[in-house]
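Help wanted!
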Amino acid sequence: MRIEVAGENALIIYVGEHGEAGVANRVEQITRLLRQQLGADLIDLVPSYASVLVVFDMFRCDHLKVRNAIRDVEPLLTDDASAEGRIVTLPVYYGPEVGVDLEDLARNADLTTDEVIDIHRNGEYRVYAIGFAPGFAYLGDVDPRIAAPRLSTPRQKVPRGAVAIADRQTAIYPAVSPGGWNLIGRCPTRMFNPDQEPTMPVQVGDIVKFDAISRDEFLALGGSLDD
Amino acid sequence: MTDQAANKQGFKVVQPGLMTLIQDAGRYGQHGIGLTVGGPLDGEAFRWANRLVGNDVNATALEASFGGLVLQAQVDSAIALTGAETPLTINGQPKDQWRTHAVKAGDEIKLGFSTSGCRAYLAVVGGFDIPHSFGSAATVAREKVGGLKGDKLAAGDVLAASAVKEVELKLLPEWERPDYSADVSLRVILGYQQAAFTELQVARFLSSEYTTTDRSDRMGYRLEGPEVKPSIDGILSEGICHGAIQVPADGQPIVLLNDRQTIGGYPKIGSVLSLDTGRLAQLTPGSKVRFEAINIDEAHNIHMLSRYRENATRMVRG
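Answered by r_m:
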């Protein structure tokens, strides 16, 4: 673990390299342990792929105290797989009607659209980070056979619930927004709902699985086909 | 109007100005769901507006960028306008900034366009009564969160506020007020991927002058000047703190501010002291800035002294 200064009241902990065994697991553990350890000295934490940003209240403590807290939690980290995150299953209606890039992606990958769907829905994805927009969860890693670069021209408007792929990441758009990821399906579950507790169905560290549903099931679950 | 706020009296927005936002100290502890902080770009001027009307320093107030705001009071109250030099009139009579003014129901409060600096802060006694979302009233338009409808003010909006009878009128002496026309030196705590920048690159960064561009907003200020190129193109996306200086492939630094994304994948050379991002955000395009390196311990000391000084500064009756 390496600790660097980030700003006047922030340190960043580099936990390891992305893809290295156990890194995402340690990110999740450090986030949880530091939240307890720092208590009211903590302003916020931003866990990501292989790092945790720690923002502290500089009028209550200093960076030395925060460094000590980080060193205190380090020996508590375990490689125990039971510390893995919760499993969250999200329904997805796959198909060209809502997944407007599915056919192009399949052609470029030399696969049928059904094969692309099967590969995507059989994957297990970790929530590596949440950011970009409220409720936008970066999930990985996508099977390299269906990894696809971002569109050269991003769309002005991607519908809420769009299930998309960019490189080896996948995500569900939490709200209508511009976006350059490849759309392959749509999820009727709200990924960000300010009027609901919890606001998001997932958090960093969780494992996401996708359950393929039919068009009728998608509509019955409240999904919308609007662009 | 059908919403509940419409039943409450306060201040009616006659003209919203170019971009007027409801702000409090900001939204904290919500990075886990991807929400940024928001809050006033110039915290010092924001706190003074609140202090002048006797509020808690973090009470809900308005940030008027570039001016143009016109309000009509529906209740008796008092106001104060701080920050960017912006002509202020009440019922057509010119009034001083950095000073409390009593207003009566029916009075028209008008801001002209800012002439020095570009963020003015208007506070009313007791603060505006705005429902909180995720623990704060701060508006982040990019996220459609906070304020009245997650967006800047619009004509016809009503900002609820309490009527007050007795108001103590105060002013901040002129010599205590910031000078927004002064040169801005941004103190930087080097950090993050600083090791990806050679000594020569860091030296160039700290010894060159940069110009603010028109591609600057509440997310960040894009600067133009001598290229500073890190030895790496991108990094794994990671948390971005206030003031972080992101350097994309074109070598032109971007100072990230209150409405920044919470994570990002560009290399960063360090972060600007928050006392100085307040000054940066007052600059209009074409202004010059320089960077100066400090370490995190110095940053703490500067903040402690600054807070002490701010608290010790006395307003006078006026």
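OP: Thanks! One thing I noticed: Helices of chain A lie at 23-38, 63-73, 102-109, 113-121, 215-220.
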